[in-house]
Amino acid sequence: MILRHIIFFFFFLFSPLVVHSQVDWRINGEAGLYNSSGDAVLESSGLITRLDSFLKYKYENENRNASIQLRLRPELYGANHSVSSIKIKADGDYYQVENDLRWGTNISVQRSFL
Questions:
Q1: How many Å apart are CA 53 and CA 58, to the nearest integer?
Q2: Cα–Cα distances in angstroms (integers) from residue 42 to residues 61, 84, 104, in the given order
Q3: pLDDT (tens digit per residue) in 26-70
Q4: pLDDT digits (tens, 9 = 90+) for 68-100
Q5: Residue from 106, 63, 108 nearest 89 by CA
Q6: Across the chain, which distance is largest between two alpha carbons, in Å?
Q7: Distances in Å between the alpha carbon of 85 and those of 13, 51, 90?
Q8: Where are the domains of the chain?
Q9: Residue 19, C-beta contacts closer than 8 angstroms, at least 6 positions apart
Q10: Which single residue of 7, 24, 47, 63 has CA 20 to 30 Å from 76?
Q11: Torsion angle defined by CA atoms of residues 27, 59, 20 and 63, in that order, rounded to the nearest 10 degrees
C-alpha cells in the first residue's frame, strides 16, 4: 500500500518532464506585532505569525492550457491565544483552441476558518 503511494508520488513529480507541464510552489512566512483597540478576545497588542503556502500545476501544449492552484494561509495571533484563522483557496483553469473556436472555463473556491 505504501509502495503504491510512493510510486504515485514519483510519477506525479517526474511526469511533468514528459508532458510539458510544470509545478510551481513556494512557502512564505511572516511575523510582526499588532496593536488593536482591545476587545474581549485579544490583548491590545501582541505577536502575529502567518504562513503562506502555494502550489500550482500547469499543463500547456499548442491547443490546450490547464492549471490547478491551491493556496493555504494560516494566521496565529499570539502564543497564548486560541484565536487563529486558516484561509484555503483553490483555482482551476482550462482553455482550448479547436480550428476557429476558442473556449475556456475557470473555477475558484475559497473558505475561511476561524
A1: 17
A2: 51, 11, 46
A3: 888 888 877 766 555 555 667 778 888 999 999 888 888 889 999
A4: 999 998 887 766 666 678 889 999 999 988 888
A5: 108
A6: 62
A7: 30, 11, 17
A8: 21-113
A9: 59
A10: 24
A11: -160
Cell representation of residue 113: 476558518
Which residue in the block uniquely carries the three cell numbers 485579544? 42
Alpha helix ranges (H) inside 1-114: 2-14
Which grid cell is 21?
507541464
Record the cell numbers describing residue 69, joined without a space: 492552484
Q: C-alpha grid cell for residue 2? A: 505504501
Cell matching residue 57 = 500545476
Alpha carbon distance 51, 70 (integer Å): 14
Q: What angle do CA 85, 88, 5 make, to 5 degrees?
A: 120
- The gap between the terminal CA atoms of the chain, to the nearest Å, is 35
Q: How far apart are CA 58 and CA 79, in angstroms?
A: 38
Contact 77, 34 (CB under 8 A): yes
